Amino acid sequence: MTSAEMVAALGDRLKHTQLVVVANREPYIHLRQMREPSGFWDWLRGLRESQEVITWIRPASGLVTALDPVMRASGGTWVAHGSGNADRESSDAHGRVRVPPDRPSYTLRRVWLSEEEERGYYYGLSNGAIWPLCHIAYSRPEFNESDWEAYSQVNRRFAETVLEEIGDKPAIVFIQDYHFALLPRFIKDARPDVIVCQFWHIPWPNPEVFRVCPWAEQMLHGLLGNDLLSFHIQYHCNNFLSTVERTLEARVDYERFAVVRGGHPTIVKAFPISIDPDLWSAGKSVDRALEAREIRRSIGVGDQRMIFGIDRLDYTKGIPDRIRAFERMLKRHPEWREKVVFVQIGAPSRDQLPRYKALSQEVDDAVASVNDTYGTMSWRPVVYVREHRDPADIAAMYRAADVCVVSSLHDGMNLVAKEFIAARTDLRGVLVLSRFTGAARELQEAVLVNPFAVDEFADALNTALAMSPEQQTRRMRVLHARVRNETVYDWAAGILRAACGMAEAV
Ligand code: G6P
After folding, report:
1. Which residue's CA lies nearest to atom 15 of ligand 1?
2. Closest-lying ligand 1 atom to the alpha carbon of residue 201
3. Tens digits of per-residue pLDDT, 426-441?
4. pLDDT in tens, 157-188
5. Mean local confidence (pLDDT), 227-252
C-alpha cells in the first residue's frame, strides 16, 4: 500500500478524531552549528567567516523512519522529547513547531526535560534497564530506583502534554516503544473515552527473563491501560501474554489474544513494521553505474567487491561479530584477499552509557585487527565510518554494494534489511541476515546466519560473495515483491484501522 492508499483506506475516519503520536525521539532535531563559508553564493551573501547557523537533522531511528511518512500523510501531532540544542528557539512558546521544516504537514510538540530527568528516564531506565532486558544480548540490565522515579515522572509529564494536546475532543493516541510503559495507564485513567494504542518496537522477552525486573507489575499494569498493544511478531505477543499470566491477577483470553484486567480489555496483536519502498528505490542520479562508482570512490572502494553494513552503534546489532566473521572469512577463503572491502557505517548512539562506549572501542579494535593482519599497501580490508549519513547517500551505498549484512544478536524487526531490498530495483545483491531479527521471519530468501557462530557466519559471507547473478536475481525478486507488498503504510493502516474501529464502538 502507498501513502495515498493508506489515506484512502482510513477515509474520513481520522477526520473526526485527532491522531496524536507519542515517541521519545523527535522526527526533526534543530541544532546550532558553526558553518564555514563555501563557494560563490556564500561570498555573494556576504558570508566571509564561519557563522553560527540553525540546521535540522533527522535522527537515525527505525521508528522515525517508519512513522514520519505516516504522519506526513495523515497529519496530527507528534509529541516527543525536545533534545536538540536549538529546539527551543525553533518552537513556539508551547513547544510546537510544524514539520518537516522544508514541507510542513504536521505538528511536532516538544516536551522539555531537565538533564537529570533525561539521565534517569532515557539513559537510565529506558536504555540501561529495559533495552538490555528485552533484547537478551548478554548485557546485564541495571535497575536503579532513582531511574525508575525519573521514568515514572517523565511518563506523567508526557501524559499531561498529550491530554493538553487533545483537549476535550475525541482522539486516538498512538504511543511508541519502551520509553512509555506507564503512559497508557495515565491517559486511560484520565480519559477512558480516548483510544490508546502502543507499538513496542523491540522484542518482548519470556517470563523467566522479565521476572528479574523490580517493577514488572507496575510496567504491566501501565501497558494494560492500552486498548491495543502490538509487537512485530506473534512470538513477542505470546511472550507478553505469558508474562502477564505469571505476574498479575488478570484474565488472559487466548481466543481473542486479549488481557482483561479490571473489566478493561487490551488486545495484543502482531503488526510487522516495514518501510516506504519508494523512498529507497528513487535514486539521486539516473545513471546508476556512475552513481555506484562515485559513492564507492568517496568511501575508498575501488574495483573490489563490497560488503556493506549500516547501523546505529548499538551492542545488539552484532557489529564486532560481523567484522570478526569477515576476518575469519579472509582466513578460511584466502582467494578473497585484496578482492573485497567491508564498508561499515556506524551512527553514534547513546554514547554517554558505558556499554555503548565499550562497544565503540570493541568495534575500533575489531577493525584494527583485520586491517593490521590482512591489509596491504594498496588494500584496506575494512573501511569504518563513524558518522550519521543521510538517506540519499545510504540508498546509493545499498545500490553500490554486492552484499549487505544485518547481523543483530536480537532485533524486533530491523529495517536496514528491508531498505536494502527496496533499493535494489536491479534485483541484484545479496542480503546476509541474522536469524534473530523479526525480519528473518519474512525474508527467508536471504542468506540466514547465526551471528554468534563465527565460522558459519564466515562461510555465509563467502556464499553471498560467490552467488551467481541468476541466483541473486531469483532470490531478490521474491524479497523485493514481499517488501513492496507490505509497506509501512499497511502497518500503520492496520493499527489505525483497528483503533478507529474501537473509537467508533465507544
Ligand atoms: C530503536 C528504538 C527507537 C529508538 C531508536 C534510536 O529503533 O526502538 O525507539 O528511537 O532505536 O535510538 P535513540 O535512543 O537514538 O532514540
Report:
1. 349
2. 8
3. 999 999 999 999 999 9
4. 999 999 999 999 999 999 999 999 999 999 99
5. 96
Residue (of 483, 461, 318, 475) closest to 417 by Cα position: 483
Give the Cα separation of 386 and 393 in Å (integer).
Answer: 14
Other CB atoms within 10 A of residue 104 CB: 12
Q: Please give the single-letter amino acid code of residue 480.
A: H
User: Model's pTM, two decimal places?
Assistant: 0.95
CA of 43 to the centre of ligand 1 (A): 40
- φ/ψ of 129, rounded to 5, equals -120, -65
Q: Is 62 in the pocket of ligand 1 (CB under 6 A)?
A: yes
Residue 284: pLDDT band with limits 50, 70, 90:
low
Predicted confidence at residue 29, as pLDDT, reads: 97
Give the single-character DSSP code of 178. G
Q: pLDDT of 124-155, one tens digit each?
A: 999 999 999 999 999 999 999 999 999 999 99
Provide the pLDDT for residue 283: 61
User: Are residues 479 and 443 in contact, defined by beta-carbon separation less than 8 angstroms?
Assistant: yes
Q: Ligand 1: does its nearest atom lie under 6 Å from the Cβ of 202?
A: yes
Ligand 1 within 6 A of 349 CB? Answer: yes
Please report the pLDDT score of residue 37 as a whole number.
Answer: 77
Model confidence pLDDT, tens digit, residues 38-47: 777 777 767 7
- Nearest-atom number in ligand 1 for the CA of 60 is 6
CA of 177 to the centre of ligand 1 (A): 9
C-alpha cell of 150?
525519573
Pure H helices in 127-283? 131-135, 145-166, 183-190, 207-210, 216-223, 234-247, 277-281
Atom 4 of ligand 1, nearest CA residue: 61
Q: Which atom of ligand 1 is nearest to the CA of 59?
A: 15
Contact 330, 382 (CB under 8 A): no
Task: Compute the distance from residue 332 Cα to the ligand 1 centre, in Å.
Answer: 36
Sign of CA dihedral 358, 360, 366, 368: negative
**Distance from residue 130's CA to the centre of ligand 1 (Å):** 12
> What span, in angstroms and rounded, lies between the C-alpha atoms of 303 and 285?
20
Q: Is the peptide bond before 451 cis (omega within 30 degrees of 0)?
A: no
